[in-house]
Specification:
alpha/beta; ATP-binding; hydrolase; 688 residues; metal-binding; eight-stranded mixed β-sheet; P-loop_NTPase; nucleotide-binding
């Protein structure tokens, strides 16, 4: 079956209009309209019009000849006017062929900054990669050479005029800023993908009686259904009280502060930095903050990114459960986005066979209460390549979000998905320097689009947090000189909100901060144990692990061993394989809900002590032990008790022990450190 090109263009225009109404968030619509300098109603028509031109480059001899049988049905006049055919990708051909007709519609003929050039760039990028072209060449008659003669050019102009008429004839904008072009390109790509599904266009009437007007009106009526079937329609949650949603007796002081104090500080988009010890409920704090930020900024939904696939898998269940509890009809889906998401039993679905329909919405009924998150499973369409971030609620690895600001295909589509939601970065401290640079670039884009951001961390250095806030504000339009002399360092524990429009910083109140410190107070003792560790098979290290585990293995209790390398983990596993013990690398230190009575770790940075504390205090918090790794000098000078959790180190290991003491001193009501500085450490919790 040959589907008429004109009908596909009209389908895409109709779906783009539907996406404007049902998919875009308020902040995206406002930002696009403001960037174009037109009212939102006109902006909607313009976006639909441009989507309806995306495949104009297919109306060229080079493309039509790709199907010889269909090309023979083309009129003799067009075939005779093909001329010297040049094979050009149809996305690039759309960019070349649309420029002239757009100029005639009043888009301006400035090839550098004119609106026609901006729209041509959108059309050229609708296959995921923006085209490069000499602006002067774009404005010349040579740009359509090889794309058909005068007959082809007249037909293309007729198509442009017809699509323009069907969408209401929106007036041309004076400019199309590059940032607006990026967002609209993502929307055009999405409209094209939805209109290109077989199940969609095979059911269309393509008989001679189907006029352009009748077809477009039918496409407008069905656009909403297509968007809903794909799982893209935005819906409001039925918000539950905090305690009921998270099934806790009451929010802790940090969470209550966000509920009570944050709304007064938020007047629009901004960035929220939450720094608190592991186990202090930062995830629930972020979900509560999303309520406040989304309402003020006009976003809908949340994207939660984490450093590893393991942490993303666990977070998926938590976010999906929260969404399912507030979406009784199961209308909202939560996607999991990383390369191995299909292996996650919580996310996978055997019912989605390879031959199933592209557009589907799974009806999951009678789900047991113990698996509430299953009601938030997405249908097949959102599980497709590069689509997961388009869902209203998404959880995934950090790298998936970074692809939106890297020069890769369909980065504009990913950015479209991110900018309509509240963006949450968990473990904001856990990224390498080059990743932090990319994060700053992403934050700048989100700041420009008025997208609220939440950064969560237990050990984020105050200077690093300050840099991330400044990157966000630069995207929101602030110059470096305007921010000079301002400080955006968050107190620990606590939160800091910075408004995108005013750059005004609002911290958590000292009273609430003191309440949280008192609420989470715990005694923490740190000891060190020198061992020989040169090879993974070192008997001294393995024997020390076994000795530490003996009290729990012989009785009852759970334990985990954190190793520095994969080789160490393998050797430790072989040594302990007859015991019920979790052996892992440092991956379990990042955002995983672990509840163990004993935790043993190789030598690690001081911040790992803080992470270990959270692991042991998250639930029961009975005991923590972190021991091991290499020979040290005579353990003199660190015996006895230290004040307020600070070590009094000496010797060659003093530097590491002092750094550890400084970090631990920021935790509430800490105990003592003893043993040689710089070695592995034992962390224990004692009842107050």
């Amino acid at each position: 079956m040959v589907y008429p090109l004109l009908f596909h263009l009209l389908d895409s225009a109709a779906i783009a209009g539907g996406l404007w109404d049902r998919f875009l968030s308020s902040n995206q619509r406002v930002w696009i309209a403001r960037g174009l300098g037109v009212p939102q109603g006109v902006a909607r028509g313009l976006v639909a019009f441009w989507a309806g031109l995306h495949d104009l480059g297919k109306l060229t001899p080079g493309f039509q000849q790709c199907a010889p049988g269909a090309y023979r049905t083309v009129s003799r006049a067009l075939r005779g006017d093909a001329g010297d055919v040049e094979r050009v990708g149809h996305a690039r051909a759309s960019m070349f062929t649309a420029f002239g007709p757009l100029v005639e519609l009043g888009y301006g003929d400035d090839a550098l900054d004119g609106a026609a050039a901006g729209v041509a760039g959108i059309l050229g990028g609708h296959h995921g990669r923006f085209q490069q072209a000499d602006p002067l060449f774009l404005a010349s008659a040579d740009c359509v050479a090889g794309l058909g003669g005068a007959s082809w050019d007249r037909l293309r102009r007729e198509y442009v005029a017809l699509v323009h008429e069907q969408v209401g004839g929106p007036r041309a904008p004076q400019q199309v800023p590059a940032a607006v072009g990026v967002l609209v390109t993502g929307l055009v790509i999405l409209a094209d993908w939805l209109a290109s599904q077989e199940d969609y266009w095979l059911a269309k009437d393509v008989s001679e009686k189907a006029t352009a007007g009748l077809h477009f009106r039918g496409a407008v009526r069905s656009a909403g259904e297509v968007i809903e079937q794909a799982g893209l329609a935005r819906e409001d949650l039925e918000r539950l009280p905090f305690a009921e949603l998270h099934q806790v007796p009451e929010p802790n002081p940090l969470q209550r502060s966000v509920m009570v104090e944050l709304p007064a500080a938020v007047r629009g988009a901004g960035i929220l930095v939450v720094t608190a010890a592991p186990g202090d409920g930062k995830t629930e704090t972020a979900l509560e903050a999303e309520r406040v930020l989304s309402q003020a900024a006009g976003t809908r939904g949340v994207c939660f990114v984490l450093p590893t696939m393991a942490t993303s898998d666990e977070m998926y269940k938590r976010v999906a459960t929260a969404v399912a509890r507030q979406s009784p009809e199961g209308a909202l889906a939560v996607t999991l986005t990383h390369s191995m998401a299909w292996l996650n039993e919580a996310y996978g679905d055997a019912e989605l066979a390879p031959g199933s329909r592209v557009v589907s919405h799974e009806e999951l009924e009678d789900v047991p209460a113990a698996a509430e998150w299953e009601r938030a499973r997405p249908g097949a369409w959102l599980r497709g390549s590069k689509r997961a971030l388009l869902a209203q609620y998404a959880v995934g690895t950090f790298d998936q979000a970074l692809l939106s600001v890297l020069p890769v295909r369909h980065n504009s589509l990913r950015l479209l998905g991110l900018t309509g939601k509240t963006f949450v970065v968990d473990e904001a401290h856990a990224y390498e320097p080059y990743e932090r640079e990319l994060l700053q670039r992403l934050l700048s884009w989100l700041g420009r689009f008025g997208c609220p951001v939440v950064l969560l961390s237990a050990t984020l250095p105050s200077t690093a947090g300050d840099q991330l806030v400044r990157a966000y504000l630069r995207g929101a339009g602030w110059k470096k000189r305007q921010l000079k002399g301002r400080s955006f360092q968050s107190a620990y524990p606590g939160w800091l909100f910075v408004d995108a429009q005013t750059a005004e910083a609002t911290p958590m109140s000292p009273r609430r901060q003191e309440q949280h410190q008192e609420h989470r107070a715990a005694r923490l003792s740190v000891c060190v144990e020198p061992v020989s560790h040169r090879l993974p098979q070192d008997a001294g290290r393995l024997a020390a692990v076994g000795w530490e585990l003996a009290p729990l293995v012989e009785g009852q209790g759970s334990a985990a061993v954190v190793c520095s390398t994969v080789a160490d983990a393998q050797a430790t596993y072989l040594h302990l394989r007859d015991r019920t013990v979790v052996v892992a690398t440092q991956v379990i230190e990042q955002s995983l809900d672990l509840d163990v009575d004993l935790l043993i770790s190789d030598l690690a940075p001081p911040v790992a002590a803080v992470a270990a504390r959270g692991t042991l205090l998250a639930a029961r918090g009975l005991l923590a032990a972190l021991r091991l790794p290499r020979p040290l000098p005579d353990p003199a000078g660190m015996g006895g008790r230290a004040q307020a959790g600070r070590a009094q180190p000496s010797g060659r290991g003093a530097g590491a022990a002092q750094a550890l003491g400084q970090r631990l001193s920021r935790l509430p009501a800490l105990g003592h450190c003893r043993g040689p500085g710089g070695a592995a450490r034992r962390v224990g919790r004692h009842p107050r």
